[in-house]
Design brief:
Structural class: mainly alpha
Helix content: over 70%
Distance between the termini: 35 Å
Largest sheet: 2 strands, antiparallel
CATH architecture: Up-down Bundle
Number of domains: 1
Strand content: under 5%
Number of strands: 2
Strand order of the largest sheet: 1-2
Number of helices: 5
Order of helices and strands: HHHHHEE
Amino acid sequence: MQFDKVTQIYKKTGLSTMSMREYVILLLKECLVAVQKYESTSPEEQNEVIHQAQKVLFELMSITDQKHEKGSRLFEFYVHLNQCLVDVRIHQNTERLQLVERYLTEMIASWENAKSVTSGVGYGRHDVRT
């Protein structure tokens, strides 16, 4: 029981000390993992898998600064991904799921590239320093 509590505290500390850029990459990867689980899970579990991915997208939306055009476009992109997941959930549209998977993969690559070539660039409501 204590081990679980210590593990949770460790995870929270790790999240609170990472840069916003690293946090975004982590969230995108978490969303991708959920999306990739969809086809290998039972029909009863598929809704939960989609729900997990949507929760991650909602977290990404909440940290996106919409005061700037790029932030607004990124927010709209996350909304679009969520709408695709809704379509998957309602109609079992695996083409939309593949689209979401492709977009997430490209986003992760873009964020990782940005992380490697830039530093001190703001994202969302937070100034990122790596």
